[in-house]
Amino acid sequence: SDGQYIATAALNWIPVWDAHTGKYLHRFDSDSNSLSVQFIPGTQNLASGNSDGTIKIWDVRTRRALHT
Q: How far apart (Å, rounded) are the C-alpha atoms in residues 32 and 20?
């Protein structure tokens, strides 16, 4: 949401890149296929919509799932 990162939905993982350099930073592993991702405005959090009907909230800084 602040233009610092880029994330994409990619099956059961979500790759994250540095938006300025294009460098791959890390990935989030999910239990189900991620169908869509969206940064949450005003935060460093990412939401993913998943094929099992869940939505996960990920913290980009700590690289952890916060909520399902």
A: 29
Q: Is the pLDDT of residue 38 over 80?
A: yes
Global pTM? 0.82
Integer angstrom CA distances of residue 37 from 25, 27, 55: 16, 13, 9
Closest CA to 31 of 13, 53, 7: 13
Tally DSSP H helices, then E strands, for the chain.
Answer: 0, 7
Burial profile 28-46: b = 16 or more Cβ within 10 angstroms, e = fewer: bebeeebeebebeeeeebb
Burial of 14 (0-12, 13-18, 19+ CB in 10 A): buried
C-alpha R_g of the chain: 11
